[in-house]
């Protein structure tokens, strides 16, 4: 409501200004003073995005807040200019270039990565107290939230809040293009002990990550559905060290083999359907993560 009031005031001021101009004896300039924000180069960051996202990948980064692009069910604020620059640099280095390296060209990202990245400054809070870290829409856009608290040198925080999310949402997009085998879902369906996907009740059913692991899910959110579990397995694997992954499997205890069966299907899907070895991708991602503390994030 506060935003709406400010918008109405701005429109009123514009009408008043135009009225005064029309009454003036000065001649009218035939050049419009209203410009769009599409792909026009308006700031040094826009120029950098043109050279590093639009031209090589045909990806648009929307860092200015646009109502039409946001989810109106949440109270959101714009991403800060400085944080947006840092995030764009990190997405390029840790994600886009990592896939370029493993595939040998930019073609994979150019053909499959969503064409729009939308940056939002604040978190998106759900009624149950959970926070939305990112969303993917129809294979065309990924939205990242909470950029205003970005700590660009904290690799663990970058993974937990942003880059696991990017790999997760990108996995959904790949699944939309090439569905995975139904054998994946059946692993849970055939399990003993009444283990099932629990939908949005995952936070209540599994109060801790350990409890989810001990029921054979790589994370609490993985217990939501087979689709969410599939991309959780891939995204958690590529952003965690081998030691951290092994710790999760050990925590699963008797359900370790259940997770390993599901991950085997995920691994083969990426390898056979997309030509990507997840182990090699993880090596690339982890190596690049080591550069983060000294990475030049200026433009």
From TrEMBL:
This is Substrate import-associated zinc metallohydrolase lipoprotein. Pfam families: Peptidase_Mx1. Residues 1-24 form the signal peptide. Keywords: Signal. It comes from the Bacteria. The keyword Signal applies. Coiled coil: none annotated. Transmembrane segments: none annotated.
């Amino acid at each position: 409501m506060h935003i709406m009031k400010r918008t109405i005031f701005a429109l009123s001021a514009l009408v008043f200004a135009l009225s005064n101009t029309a009454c003036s004896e000065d001649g009218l300039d035939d050049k419009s003073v209203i410009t769009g924000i599409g792909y026009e180069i308006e700031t040094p960051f826009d120029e950098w995005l043109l050279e590093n996202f639009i031209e090589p990948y045909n990806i648009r980064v929307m860092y200015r807040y646009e109502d039409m692009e946001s989810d109106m069910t949440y109270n959101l604020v714009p991403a800060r200019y400085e944080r947006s620059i840092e995030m764009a640099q990190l997405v390029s280095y840790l994600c886009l270039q990592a896939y370029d390296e493993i595939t040998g060209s930019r073609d994979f990202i150019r053909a499959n990565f969503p064409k729009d990245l939308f940056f939002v400054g604040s978190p998106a809070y759900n009624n149950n107290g959970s926070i939305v870290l990112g969303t993917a829409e129809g294979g065309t856009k990924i939205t990242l939230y909470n950029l205003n608290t970005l700590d660009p040198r904290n690799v663990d925080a970058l993974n937990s809040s942003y880059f696991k999310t990017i790999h997760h949402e990108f996995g959904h997009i790949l699944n939309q293009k090439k569905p995975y085998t139904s054998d994946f879902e059946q692993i849970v369906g055939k399990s003993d002990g009444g283990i099932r996907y629990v939908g949005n009740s995952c936070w209540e059913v599994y109060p801790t990550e350990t409890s989810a692991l001990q029921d054979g899910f790589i994370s609490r959110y993985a217990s939501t559905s087979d689709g969410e579990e599939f991309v959780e397995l891939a995204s958690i694997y590529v952003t965690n060290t081998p030691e951290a992954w092994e710790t999760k499997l050990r925590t699963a205890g008797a359900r370790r083999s259940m997770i390993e069966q599901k991950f085997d299907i995920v691994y083969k899907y990426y390898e056979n359907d997309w030509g990507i070895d997840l182990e090699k991708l993880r090596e690339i991602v982890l190596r690049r993560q080591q550069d983060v503390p000294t990475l030049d994030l200026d433009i």
